[in-house]
Design goal:
With about 450 residues, the protein is α+β, with helices and mostly antiparallel strands. It is built from ten helices and eleven strands.
């Protein structure tokens, strides 16, 4: 779940869902507010009408019969009792008193009175939402009838609050929220799909420059981004091909004059001079061959295919052992990888040769995990200074104290091996082993 919400799809989904739920909550609040306001206005009008009807009825009754009739007023939300002239009036009449006075006419006089705590029984419910000129909570008014009699009228607060929500409403609300969640997820996934395709295309480009171009589909912005990516891929491929072809042509063309030069050096009479010149020429030819291999490692056209990594490791180690190298292999990856067989073999051979040249032996250990295969090649040499572990991957870089030309190093073996590892979507790192020696760690997906 944490991985999902850390992704762009999860974040877009969460933003959409929260935004929609906030809109639903706001809409529900506004609808309840409008409903309460409408109910309040409707109740206001009816309370004034009831108060008018009750006042006119009391005014029409003889004074002796009014007290018996007053007990029925509570049933319609009003409490009426006889009053006396000592009641204190409010300085500003309320909206209820003004509305009732306007309906009764000039023959009646209505004035609002101060409200006490005893008048607010039963207790108020929560006041309705929204503005209103008069809220029927505790309204107390003094009414003077046409015969001079005084009445004290109390508008009682509503007996019940907002009606409870029914189970059907809650069920429909849950279904609505679930449908909104599904819709938000589909929208987020549909929105992020082109970005995922673009990211996958970039990953595939790092592994294979000849990967088919990205298919242009979707909105105009997505098609524009895909077109720009395809153009970038084409330019990168052309640039690398031109550089590779130039390097391959130079190294290939150097082979012929170097071979002629070697044949002519054989005719030198001074044997000591001849041996020195032949050694220098051999070093030059080795550099040319390594340069050609470097060019090939940067742009291999060998097709990718599925191969058993353990079989390849066993074959490479057997060939090295037959060649007289001290090589050992332990463990198995149990993995098959998608790779270029000859190119990957070249990577392993370079690492083994590097370990044997500078550490006298190569100990290989293989293991597999959920992420792929891990191959470790350890030697028993002096190791490398920590500040030079990254620099040895640079072309033609050599550590003179241990990797001189006398040992056959050209400074391209590790560069070629790392290029091949990265072409396969893997990595190659070096570190000094705690028990001594240098260890190369090759990971393959």
């Amino acid at each position: 779940m944490k991985i999902f919400f850390n992704s762009m799809t999860g974040r877009v989904f969460l933003i959409l869902l929260c935004g929609i739920l906030a809109a639903i909550a706001l809409t529900f609040w506004l609808s309840v507010s409008e409903r309460q306001r409408t109910i309040g206005q409707f109740r206001d009008v009816h309370q004034v009408e009831r108060a008018e009807q009750l006042t006119l009825a009391l005014d029409a009754l003889p004074a002796a019969n009014r007290q018996a009739f007053l007990g029925t007023a509570r049933r319609i939300g009003l409490q009426v009792e006889s009053a006396h002239s000592g009641l204190r009036e409010q300085p500003i009449p309320s909206a209820f008193a003004a509305a009732l006075g306007a309906r009764l006419g000039a023959d009646f006089r209505v004035a609002s009175l101060q409200v006490s705590d005893a008048d607010c029984q039963p207790a108020h419910r929560a006041r309705s939402i929204g503005p209103s000129a008069w809220r029927p909570g505790c309204e107390v008014a003094r009414i003077t009838l046409r015969d001079g009699a005084l009445l004290r009228m109390t508008v009682l607060p509503p007996r019940s609050g907002m009606p409870p929500l029914h189970q059907d409403f809650l069920l429909y609300l849950a279904l609505f929220v679930c449908s909104i969640g599904v819709l938000a997820y589909l929208v987020a996934r549909m929105t992020m799909r082109p970005l995922k395709q673009l990211a996958q295309a970039a990953f595939d480009l790092g592994r294979d420059l000849n990967h088919p171009p990205l298919e242009l589909a979707g909105s105009s912005e997505i098609r524009q981004a895909g077109s720009a990516f395809n153009a970038m891929q084409s330019r990168i491929r052309d640039h690398i091909q031109q550089r590779t072809q130039m390097l391959a042509a130079i190294t290939h063309d150097l082979q012929t004059p170097l071979t002629r030069l070697r044949l002519r050096l054989e005719k030198v009479a001074d044997s000591e001079l001849r041996d020195k010149l032949v050694d220098d020429l051999s070093a030059m030819q080795q550099m040319v061959r390594e340069g050609l291999e470097l060019a090939r490692s940067m742009g291999s056209n060998e097709p990718m295919q599925r191969l058993d990594l353990d079989s390849l490791l066993d074959s490479v180690c057997s060939d090295a052992f037959d060649a007289g190298q001290q090589v050992s292999l332990s463990g198995q990856t149990g993995k098959s990888v998608l790779a270029r067989p000859n190119t990957l073999r070249r990577c392993l051979v370079n690492l083994i040769d590097n370990a044997v040249k500078y550490g006298q032996s190569a100990a290989l250990s293989a293991a597999g995990d959920a992420g792929g295969a891990v191959i470790r090649i350890r030697d028993h040499g002096p190791g490398i200074a920590p500040d030079q572990l990254a620099r040895v991957f640079e072309p033609f870089y050599r550590i003179e104290t241990s990797r001189s030309r006398q040992t056959g190093g050209t400074g391209l073996g590790l560069t070629i091996a790392r290029n091949i590892a990265e072409q396969h979507g893997g990595s190659l790192t070096l570190h000094n082993h705690p028990d001594g020696g240098l260890e190369a760690v090759l990971t393959l997906p």
